[in-house]
Amino acid sequence: MLTYTLDQLARLLDPAHHGDSDMLIRGVSSLEEATGTTVAFAEDAKLLDKVMASAAAVVLVPKDFPDTGNRLVWRIDKPRIAFLKITELFAGKPAFTGIHERASIDASATLGAKVSVDACAVIAKGAMIGDGSRIGAGAFIGEGVVLGRDCIIEANATVLPGAILGNRVVVHPAATISADGFGFVWLEDHHHKVPQIGRVEIGDDVEIGACSCIDRATLGVTRIGRGTKIDNQVHVGHNCDIGENVLLVAQVGISGSVSIGDNSVLGGKVGVVGHLRIGSGTTVGGRSTVTKDIPDNTHYWGTPAREFKKAMREQAAAARLPELIKQVKELQKEIELLSRLVNLSEHE
Amino acid sequence: MLTYTLDQLARLLDPAHHGDSDMLIRGVSSLEEATGTTVAFAEDAKLLDKVMASAAAVVLVPKDFPDTGNRLVWRIDKPRIAFLKITELFAGKPAFTGIHERASIDASATLGAKVSVDACAVIAKGAMIGDGSRIGAGAFIGEGVVLGRDCIIEANATVLPGAILGNRVVVHPAATISADGFGFVWLEDHHHKVPQIGRVEIGDDVEIGACSCIDRATLGVTRIGRGTKIDNQVHVGHNCDIGENVLLVAQVGISGSVSIGDNSVLGGKVGVVGHLRIGSGTTVGGRSTVTKDIPDNTHYWGTPAREFKKAMREQAAAARLPELIKQVKELQKEIELLSRLVNLSEHE
Amino acid sequence: MLTYTLDQLARLLDPAHHGDSDMLIRGVSSLEEATGTTVAFAEDAKLLDKVMASAAAVVLVPKDFPDTGNRLVWRIDKPRIAFLKITELFAGKPAFTGIHERASIDASATLGAKVSVDACAVIAKGAMIGDGSRIGAGAFIGEGVVLGRDCIIEANATVLPGAILGNRVVVHPAATISADGFGFVWLEDHHHKVPQIGRVEIGDDVEIGACSCIDRATLGVTRIGRGTKIDNQVHVGHNCDIGENVLLVAQVGISGSVSIGDNSVLGGKVGVVGHLRIGSGTTVGGRSTVTKDIPDNTHYWGTPAREFKKAMREQAAAARLPELIKQVKELQKEIELLSRLVNLSEHE
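ok -> structure tokens follow
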């Protein structure tokens, strides 16, 4: 287990720091779960009570945080970023473990320097694995697949032929890359498979969640842009073109040939109809169903997805509907009454 | 194949039973699918016709079931429970098969008595597997993972470092336990991964469905309480705290840091926004989207989830909306007419 | 890489063709992605501009397509079908690779002729694999499972005991067949597992998508009819009876004991409540929730699913609701005013 002294951590954040505390820190924690050997952080003065009550050895706070008396805090510009730095120290790096004797690597595959392949992983003909990449137990790297440097393919993930991955790509367990797209044509009396012979290209620093599926293009390419992060159980259909730094939250489903611009976010369980374009910088709220193109830099929500404020207005209105029905009934009565009165007065 | 005589089964339900029938029973079945060698059951007098028509050797019925003439039935207090007992006889127990020669077990792993490990399963450094547990073909048990007694980890399931499982936990195929949570912070111009270094703790008698994902906590712990049953393709985000005896039906998606009380039920495809609390004894209907806390012992439904009766009222109202629009148009006309009449009479 | 001359392809479509072009064709493509060595197609005269701009060596077009001048096209009855034929040529057939030395096959399993089993695939006791079938790396074929001829079980797929597959069945990576259904009864103070001891029967020419789960029947059988195609991340519960030539699009979830007639289509993310019957020839639109039986040859949509046109009417009405609320408020005012006027005139 990694440990650091309090002073070592302080110097990480401020090289000018010097001290002689040999207090051992064993990890990071939330304020609530802290122990006397963890570092925690708080960005907001509202958390003062929690900071005071926390067992943490030290709490990182902004420079203008209220006074904490004897409670040890480090006042610092961006506590979240500092906390992240410390967290990364404790996260460590997965060790280089080399090729396990129970790994199965085809003689024609090319492995870079410092590649680790765990037991029962299988690397097929002609695959190329970049320097420093790690292939987990039971993972499969198909024929001709190309992986860049420092990729992590977790246990039991499957990367089939047609896939080209950039550097530092992470594929979580049971995810599938380059499985066949869903393409059939009806001829005479049954569905006839359209061969799926395109590619999947995944940019640098992409992360693909557990049990997520990025389908191979029918023809051409399914593309996931650099820096895009995909949560668990997401489906990306054949021939999609997902931009850079996009977030796809868990259980999103994207039909074939959809394009999504850079920096957009699709909330959990969003569904997108085929062949649409979602702009860049756009947010689609959780559970929305996208049924037509969405412009750049907008916020959409609902089924069908529409401009967020409009959707909220309609939803608020829906909640008033039972009341509205009563009101209309009331109006009908009043009008009938009025009408009778008026007619009477007409005939007077 | 397991077989019992009719008398053996009768004695199982009633030790006082004695008889000398050597009729062989080969299994259990529904009334409709029964053969002359199966046992079926019926809890409701409405099923009398089906009971009479069934080919079953014997049908378990409640004590007050109508007369069945020559049709063999066993009248018994709780036919469903009796049927369950018999079913379990035929289900049998998976046999102890020992360690397959193609299993890969790190020398530093600790295996209890009567542990079975199938071919191409991989058990990593320092993992501990309790007595009587079974690891299926191709499953992966990561470094330092702890499993209790009599667990079943099915083929191709993945249990990554950070996971601690209780006794009699069942993990179905392609499920993933302790994969990284989905946590990123945007610094400067790209998403920056927050190391996911917490744990997953799974209580006794929990069942995790095929292709379900229980993410590792960022810090601290993702917890699944004793006796909770999780269906297929369910996503439980980092740092969730799921109570005891909860049911999560297929394709439920739970964002990070959600807590759910004991004995609650989430129907299929329910989605829950992050950091919420769902009470205990609560039912959330299928396809609901939970967007705020839900109290104990309630029934919620809809998107957004709201009290069930309220949601039903609103839904019924929505179906009347096209009619309502017509009515309002009608009212507008009538009022215009009235208004003209009144104004006329005013000016008379 | 497969290559054909232009003349070879022309003769495939029209045996009477003769020519002496030795232009090499290396694949098929869309119009937009074409190169000088690919074949593309266009079914619609609206695509004339794209056809003219395409770099394709040749474009397949209908006989009545507008004049294309020097641009090489092949005029043909059904360009899509012709294109499909050519695509299949380039798709090729996965080669027979035999039994990998790192495959693990129980001595009691029966393998037909020309069966391929890749590294770290596991075939258990008594399993039977038909002629020409291929078992991918890390896939698991459980005890007693039966596979027909020419099946493809992709890498890391899991087929558990109880499954019987027909001929030419394709199971994509990380899919699970015959995992336990989700069945529990509450006895005293906890959920009690109902043993899942039924079967799964999958007809000829069925395709099961990546990370999809077809659960084993509790008793009896879960059935997938001949020619049905299932996309990724679909859940089919225990004891379902899915007809022939059905399409289940990605992330569909079907509860236990549902039946679906032949030739029906369920769009992405559709959910179906247990024990319902969906007719044959029926379409259920994406994201619908089926809460009651649906007749044959209909089009349903929405939550709850209802006849498509009705659902569309209600949805259009919902968008007008905020305006309707204003109108009703306006009417209330007018009526109040009128009412005052009338009462005044009454009392005059």
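Chain C has a mean pLDDT of 93.
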